[in-house]
Amino acid sequence: MHIRDWPVDERPREKLLGRGPGALSDAELLAIFLGSGLRGRDAVATARELLAAEGGLRALLQRSPKELRKLRGLGPARACALTAALELGQRMLHAQLERGEALGDPQAAGRYFAQRLRGLPHEVFAALFLDTRHRVIAFEELFQGTLDGAEVHPREVVRRALGHNAAAVIVAHNHPSGNPEPSAADRAVTARLKQALALVDLRLLDHFVIADGPPVSLAARGWV
């Protein structure tokens, strides 16, 4: 059965317009992007096959453009369009954090770190540097490590914060294993970093762990 033969309120486009994008499944959202399916299959069936073959939406969207273009149901044009759509989403998040508007929602920083760090094959420790009104001055990836750790030097974080004339810092690192639970080492480096920044009158506002699921805030746990 073709999608046009479905009940109107169950068709992906009509459902999106009537109920919003949150009402659609991953396959339905991907089907809207695809526009049409493989021979003998509608766009939703094709999207479901793509997601099943790649192990889900996250695994699919982490592929490079060169890898995407080889997937059955995509090809060069759709691979480029999908990559461009993902980049637009990342730039929108970045625009929300650009200097000029105070960071009123700390979770916005967590979502931004997730976009930048989730899915990386090695651990990366990064920072957002903020001014006195908690407006974003800069984002930097400061340290890179291995699959299960990255050595963090608080003195270097302080040096970069002073170089940006920052008043506060939010940091994050990813867990390539997918386990979002902060380790004892994560808590220890947070304490050392907070102490080092305080010596020069800088505040550590939060430390996020990026893994599977939502970003984990150490501040929310009472560890900052």
Structural features, described:
By secondary structure, the protein is an alpha+beta fold. It has helices spanning 12-19, 26-34, 43-54, 57-61, 65-68, 75-96, 106-117, 154-163, 184-198, and strands at residues 124-130, 136-144, 168-174, 203-210, 216-217. The protein has a five-stranded mixed beta sheet with strand order 2-1-3-4-5, with helices on both faces. Strand 1 (124-130) and strand 2 (136-144) form a beta hairpin.
Question: What CATH first level of the largest domain would be assigned?
Answer: Alpha Beta
The level of helicity is: 40-55%
Please state how the strands of the largest beta sheet are arranged side by side. 2-1-3-4-5
Radius of gyration: 21 Å
Helix-strand makeup class: alpha+beta
State the total count of DSSP E strands.
Answer: 5
Average pLDDT: 86
Shape: elongated
N-to-C terminal Cα separation, in Å? 56 Å
The CATH superfamily title of the largest domain: Cytidine Deaminase, domain 2
Tell me about the largest β-sheet: 5 strands, mixed
Number of domains: 2
CATH topology of the largest domain: Cytidine Deaminase, domain 2
Q: Which range does the strand content fall in?
A: 5-15%
CATH architecture assignment of the largest domain:
3-Layer(aba) Sandwich
